[in-house]
Amino acid sequence: MTVFARCKCFLKTNIFVKEINQHVKYTSDAQFVLEYSSVKEEVARRKNVFSDNKKRSEEIKIKYKRLHPEIFKLQENYFHEKFLEITKLVSNSSPDQLALQLEGNKQKRYYSFPVFSNKFCDLLLEELKNFENADVPKGRPNSMNKHGVLLDELGFNEEFLNAFRTEYLQPIAVKLFPEYVLDGLDTHKAFVVKYKIGEDVDLGWHHDNAEVTLNIALNEGFDEGSLYIGPMAGEGKGVAGSESTVEEYSHKKGWGLLHRGLQMHGAMPIEYGERYNMIIWARSSSVRNLNCPMCMKKPDLEPVDVGWGEGFTMCTS
Ligand SMILES: O=C(O)CCC(=O)C(=O)O
Ligand SMILES: [Fe+2]
Fold first, then answer.
1. Relative to the CA of 2, which of 11, 99, 103, 214 has its CA 20 to 30 Å away?
2. Domain Fe2OG dioxygenase spans what residues (predicted)?
3. What ipTM was reported for this prediction?
4. Closest CA to 114 of 214, 223, 2, 221
5. Distance from the CA of 262 to the center of ligand 1, in angstroms?
6. How many angstroms separate the alpha carbon of residue 125 from the centre of ligand 1?
7. Is the pLDDT of residue 177 over 50?
8. pLDDT higher at 1 or 116
9. Residue 193 Cβ < 6 Å to ligand 1
10. Where are the chain's structural domains?
11. Mutate to test the pocket of ligand 1, among 265, 276, 278, 280 (most ligand atoms within 8 A of CB)
């Protein structure tokens, strides 16, 4: 007799959880706790992230011996000549005139252009490797990257990144993405991502916790590891692999990719070598105070004791 049947996986795999818009697997309570316990760890990390970050920064300031102390202070000669040309013409150009100077995809509104000189990239990479080997505490960029470096902890905010954000990045971003800058890019989170076989090799499909992102490649000598760039979060299909909406971008040493934080993207696996990129998640409190880019709702804010929090501002009293 033939009877109808079902595969046993029906009770174990592909169980859609509407709240997270994802399919999960369930084979036993033990498997479930093991597989998803990293969520609990991540929440615990986030609870103290700002004070832990401050403690590590203070320890690094005392204990870490800088290899190239001069690169912690921004100087014009660290930039590629083309970047200096772009920054000079920015104030007198229309958005279209500026976009003409840049590569990328004007329709999708992501742009690429040279930012740092080869020499600066080399010095920074040497500093990062020196830091990797130093016996000091190290925070990691976020839940997606386990092997990068937080540039604020290393000491790059004070004399480098704050000036870079306000004097160079903001004038360009305000022309290209005015609705994501509004009153200004008032804070940032900057870090270096590292990919290597045996460590992190790729990065899943995501959008950034940023209004505007600048992603600058710091080295060459790796294979594959391109970015794939799709629609804005919530627009279109937004799934990796949907050919019609996803484009590839290959990193070039010293070049930056400038995109809106909400533009969906991911990184393909690296197949040889190491890849280091500096990522600047630039934030505008005037934009995110209206709509949190992570929950996509009006933010429910609470003050933080130290640092910039997640870049929102609120009035107390
Ligand atoms: O690997 C890259 O180049 C992109 C990294 C990235 O998108 C991120 O860290 O938010
Ligand atoms: Fe990203």
1. 11
2. 186-284
3. 0.99
4. 214
5. 13
6. 17
7. yes
8. 116
9. yes
10. 1-47, 67-288
11. 265
